Amino acid sequence: METGTDPAENHTDGPDPGGPDPAGPGPVDPDSEPDPTGPHTTAPVDPGPDTTGPAPSAPAPTRSRRLRRIALALLLALLLPPLAAAAALWLNYTGDPAPGTRTRNRDAVWLGHAWVDGRKKDADVRALARRLAGTGIRDLYVHAGPLEHDGTLPASAHPRARWLTAAVHRELPGVRVQAWLGDKLASEGPVGLRLESAATRAAVVRSTRQVLAAGFDGAHFDLEPLHSGDQDYLTLLDALRAVTRAEGVPLSVAAHQIDPLPALHSAAGTLTGHPKWWSQEFFGQVARRVDQIAVMSYDTAMPLESLYGGYVAQQTSLALEVTPPATDLLMGLPFFHESDLGHHESAETVTAAVRGTRLGLTRTDRDRERFGVALYVDFAAEEGDWTAYREDWVR
User: Fold this and answer.
1) What is the Cα–Cα distance from 94 to 17, expressed in whole angstroms?
2) What gap in Å lies between CA 66 and CA 168, rounded to an integer?
3) Other CB atoms closer than 10 Å to residue 31's CB: what's the count?
4) DSSP assignment letter at 274
5) I need a surface site. Which of 185, 235, 245, 283 has the fewest CB within 10 A?
């Protein structure tokens, strides 16, 4: 910032035109009248205000001033924590990802229901093969549900499952087709799947056997909203892992984000009834029970690309710290476009998510092999999303 010149710095001392005559006072005329205000008169002189006494006290603040001060204090109390958090996320997005923090050929993509209900044909599979050629995608999570609220799965939900797996194995050798199963949980309302029911959990296990018998190469679960610490969910995962291990196929789950601040899920649950995040401890408990865990690192409500990227970098580090080396950890990329309270497409970009993922990997476990990204979702993706994935992560 440029600074102006103080006028006092350019002042040159000189005679004061209003000061006394240097030659001293002239001769006094005896016939002149005395100055009635001068020192020779006996007239009283007004001494002026007394400046030797105590200074008057300042007036007490008015009620309106006190209210303004209280309002300012409350405003600062409200603004400072989010501003500090935003600054931390912005800093988390700075720096350069390490060389080599790119695809490990363990990436995945979520595919819509059209792939198993008869809408997709052989030509679509060939086009998908061209799209995925040269990328790191190894797993396709194909929507084969949803589950009924009692945990069952009608066979009519995925009539073309065997056709799809055969076509993918032919056109994309080495790529696995996993059945994506999910349902709304009754964790925040009266309607939905109830994990606390042993009968419901047993039905989910039978549904998993059903999709594996239909030719799928694994089972991928997305149950929401799933609250942190849900022991019934852990019990279900133990039962599902026994089934998938016996079949020699992966068990995969979509995971909630991890508390960016300690116990934030508890505070959110108390204030809103929707504890969006999992504790880092619970995330680790889930990760130890599965072969793959994919973080749904989108729908963050972040308003700026830099804040979103910094948030993904933090989520990547938090997840890496508690995911066992034998479990594939995948960070979700937003391959969809909408703007609402929880998702701003101008901020949640593939470019920002990939950069954040690479920064988190760089800082926490840059040489980890069982790591990748998961693309959500094929039917909402635009060409720019695929280009960013290829150039920023695969290249």
Assistant:
1) 64
2) 71
3) 4
4) -
5) 245
Asked if residues 321 and 360 have their Cβ atoms less than 8 Å apart, the reply is no
Query: In degrees rounded to 5, what are phi and psi of residue 350?
Result: -65, -40
Q: Are 137 and 373 in contact (CB under 8 A)?
A: no
Residue 68 has which token pair? 């303004």
CA distance 5 to 344: 48
What the block records as the tokens of 64 is 């309106």
205, amino acid identity: V
- Alpha carbon distance 305, 310 (integer Å): 9
CB atoms within 10 A of CB 224: 14
Provide the token pair at 19. Answer: 């000061």
Comparing CA positions, the residue from 119, 179, 111 lying closest to residue 378 is: 111
Residue with tokens 């594939």: 328
- At position 218, the amino acid (one-letter code) is G
Kindly tell me the burial class for residue 72, based on how many C-beta atoms sit within 10 Å of its own C-beta (0-12, 13-18, 19 or more). exposed
Smallest CA-to-CA distance from 295 within 316, 275, 310 is with 316
Per-residue pLDDT of the chain (395 residues; tens, 9 = 90+): 544 444 344 444 443 434 444 444 444 443 444 443 444 434 445 555 555 555 555 556 688 888 788 887 766 666 556 667 788 899 999 999 999 999 999 999 999 999 999 999 999 999 999 999 999 999 999 999 999 999 999 989 999 999 999 999 999 999 999 999 999 999 999 999 999 999 999 999 999 999 999 999 999 999 999 999 999 999 999 999 999 999 999 999 999 999 999 877 777 766 677 889 999 999 999 999 999 999 999 999 999 999 999 999 999 999 999 999 999 999 999 999 999 999 999 999 999 999 999 999 999 999 999 999 999 999 999 999 999 999 999 99
Nearest to 195 by CA among 166, 224, 156: 224
10 vs 13: CA distance, rounded Å:
10
Torsion sign (Cα): 201, 204, 206, 208: negative
Tokens at 62, concatenated: 């008015």
What span, in angstroms and rounded, lies between the C-alpha atoms of 6 and 114?
A: 76
Task: Dig out the tokens for 167 from the structure.
Answer: 């076509």
Local structure of 201: helix, strand or coil: helix
Token pair for 333: 């990329």
The closest alpha carbon to 284, from 273, 295, 275, belongs to 295
